[in-house]
Amino acid sequence: MSYRTKKIKGLYVDTVLFDMDGVIVDSMYAHARCWIQVFEEYGVHLDAIDILKREGMSGLESIADIFIDKGFSLPPDTILKNLQKKKLSLFSNYPIEVFPQIYTIFPFLKSKGKNIGIVTGSFRYLVEQLMPQQLLQHVDVIISVDDVKRGKPYPDPYVKALEKLDASNDSTIVIENAPMGIQAAKAAGLYCVAITTTLDSSFLKGADAILHDHNELIVFLMNWCSS
User: Fold this and answer.
1) Which CATH code is given to the segment(s) 28-91?
2) Which long-range contacts (CB under 8 A, 24 or more apart) does 92-96 make?
3) What predicted TM-score, i.e. pTM, was given to this entire model?
């Protein structure tokens, strides 16, 4: 089923924390197209991989990192914020869909008495815009870029989610799809499952389990809940 799976530590897991973009909603290629367009206007050429591998970082942090990586001088904060504003405006025009399997996964986990959290590098308003109430009603905590000073790859967002839920790291698993999120989860001492929705397994080696898609994730979670 998976490229690699390590045994889930501990005897009981009561909390599942999900990244949003690329895990709950199929949004990453829209994000990439918007960033590519914005940076092109500034004279910086990007490929989709430049965005996908930075997923999880806050917008401003990823902008700064890209300028440095591409050999450009770092512009003033006012320009960075303007680029982010343009990107968000472009992104608002894209229709974003929830991965259909999430409509099975969330109710299933709640039926088993599990806590569900969303831990994302996006703004909270985007979580509320992109996720239907049908899913949000199952969510116990949302940690967005608005809630932490340091985002992924630092552990802070996941640590904050654990604090809000009064959950322990040995009873929690994380669902991610990108290196920054995996690093954050592992730095917080969490078991991390990665899905190859946007990047192949070579980018996801830090995860404890790597799954092909959401169908495999359903099987993984159902097997775990029944064990």
Assistant:
1) 1.10.150.240
2) 94/27, 94/30, 94/33, 94/34, 96/25, 96/26, 96/27, 96/30, 96/130
3) 0.93
